[in-house]
Amino acid sequence: MKLKSLLPILIAIAALFALPLFIHNPYYIHLVETILIYTILLYGLDIVVGYVGQVSLGHAALFGIGSYTAGVLYFHFGWTIWGTIPASIVVTSIFGGILALPALKVIGPYLAMVTLAFGTIAQILINEMTWMTEGPLGIKIPKPELMGVPMTKAEYFWMVSAILILSLIVVDRFVKSQIGRAFEALRDSPIACDCMGVSVYRFKVIAFVISAAFAGLAGCLYAYSEQYISPNTYNNELAVLFLLGIIMGGRKSRLGAVIGAAIIVLLPKLLDDIHLFRIVASIIAIVVVVGAGMALSKKVTTPRRVAIPIAGVVGLAAFSFWLNSISDWRLSIFGFMILLVVYYLQNGIVGFAKSFYQSIFGKVKTTRGGDAEVVDDSISFISAVGNQNAGSELLKVDSILMQFGGLKALNNVDLSIKRGTIHGLIGPNGSGKSTMMNVLTGIYTPTAGNVLYAGESVVGKTSSDIALSGIARTFQNVQLFGEMTAIQNILVGLHHTFKSNMLEIALHLPRYKKEEADAYARAMALLKFVGLDDLANEEARNLPYGKQRLLEIARALALDPELLLLDEPAAGLTAPDIKELLRIIRKIRDNGITFILIEHHMDVVMSVCDTVSVLDFGQKIAEGKPAEVQADEKVIHAYLGT
Ligand code: ADP
Ligand code: MG
Fold this sequence. Notes:
Layout: H1 3-22, H2 26-51, H3 59-77, H4 81-105, H5 108-128, H6 130-133, E1 139-140, E2 145-146, E3 149-150, H7 153-175, H8 178-188, H9 190-195, H10 200-226, E4 228-229, H11 236-249, H12 254-270, H13 274-297, H14 302-325, H15 330-344, H16 348-361, E5 393-404, E6 407-418, E7 422-426, H17 433-440, E8 448-453, E9 456-457, H18 463-468, E10 471-473, H19 486-493, H20 502-507, H21 510-529, H22 545-557, E11 563-567, H23 575-590, E12 594-598, H24 602-608, E13 611-616, E14 619-624, H25 626-631, H26 633-640
Parallel strand pairs: 7-12, 7-13, 10-11, 11-12
Antiparallel strand pairs: 1-4, 2-3, 5-6, 5-8, 8-9, 13-14
Membrane topology: Multi-pass membrane protein
Protein name: ABC transporter
GO molecular function: ATP binding; ATP hydrolysis activity; L-isoleucine transmembrane transporter activity; L-phenylalanine transmembrane transporter activity; L-valine transmembrane transporter activity
């Protein structure tokens, strides 16, 4: 990082550490300390909510488990903080793993319900297991000792600050590494994630465990900060508050977590303090008004862009005047304002600030990679494969039956794919082409029959294992990782090139840095190959449709596949785009990669395929050279009807 961008961070850190020297009121120090501790928890929660995209209402319970691990170990065994911190992290991580189990089965609102139940059960257990937790009486914990002397308020504050900064660095490094990319990939498209060799199952568990580790750490620090823990603290209201912190602050943002933590700590205090309330209510009102103005200004002409903020400020003045006169209503007004913020600022306060900044100063570059040294248009980055065995059988599909209830989507289909060829798979809509692709990539397990890839059966293997064994694919309905940039999409495909573990990521050890640099260079080369290098830092969902299809192919190539399955790659493409696509397909084929190509455009099929198989109602009705198949009576009949 450059010194210039580091400066504000250093100033913030210096201010944080100087705080106890200037503020002598222990109440305020304690308030800030609580914000810091909540921030650590929100860093963890953000991994599950922001990166993996799941709602967890179980984090108050995890926070409580962290506190109680420290409390119980101190109370019964006299452990010091140096033992309880690691213990809290480990114990809570285990519970995080348990919480991950339902997350593997259900998502969205159902997961929210299950995690809520987890929270309730945990709270009841803490309450009931009096022999261990002292139940509703709670546990008193003294301030931790440093070399035999109890820490002062300020010393403990510094310790929490230091741990927060460490947490920030570790979380930031995690989410920017291959692990963080795996989290985001499984949020945006679990199917594509698995088919890129990144196991959704595995990374969901990892996400919950890491997330819980931070909750446990925060819980432990909280116990010493409060010096007293009791089950009531860790209720479902707190869980909702944590979630609100992430949403209001802004997900996927370290600063957002700080802002979110500040809001949820100060919120209850605000409701008691009319002066503070007015200040914060006005700030939120400003945010809402400016936000609404911005949303409007996108639709209106330039002169009005100036008029709208002015109108907003005037309205705001009127609002604050009004606010003074009806202070009794503040609770409901506050609730209403939060509702507005959550509803209109879906990316939270930080997300809003970013887009505001961008609308004024133009787009800021957020990701690296755009300036990487780029290779030429050669495809040396794809390992040359099958050339030596060209013509031998790579994939054998042996009387596959795929039944959905009474429907036989595939009915005893055989296929034989030769190395180094482009094998076309055609047929009318609903004839079972995509189903075949899903069977080959492990998304469906066939009802009967077998698939042999390079002599080994793939039936029963997981999608990610199949992908890693050398079968890559694209999807009929494009399955990109929408919120990630083009280059990040490719980097997910390159996940298999990373060997470094979490410790190496956290410490930025040489092996990890080398892997990351290599992967960036290779991802850039792949983008260049499909002509997308200019759009490396564009979010995938913002790319034009044709480019999205090309990006999907590049991402599949990142897997270093031997067999590439393309499901209607030319669908929705313009004529020049199709030409480009054909050029790319031929180039990849020349490098020894084998294709199965599902396509509706007959000219595409005729010009590149070596062999074509035709499906109709789940059965193979013809096979042979493109010209032969095109002339076949049954094929014409299937396509044109009687
Ligand atoms: P296409 O050749 O157009 O790609 P598909 O393979 O998508 O055809 O679909 C073949 C048939 O299988 C269709 O009738 C479709 O409705 C059915 N089908 C595909 N997937 C499923 C599923 N998951 N559940 C039920 N029916 C399915
Ligand atoms: Mg299809």
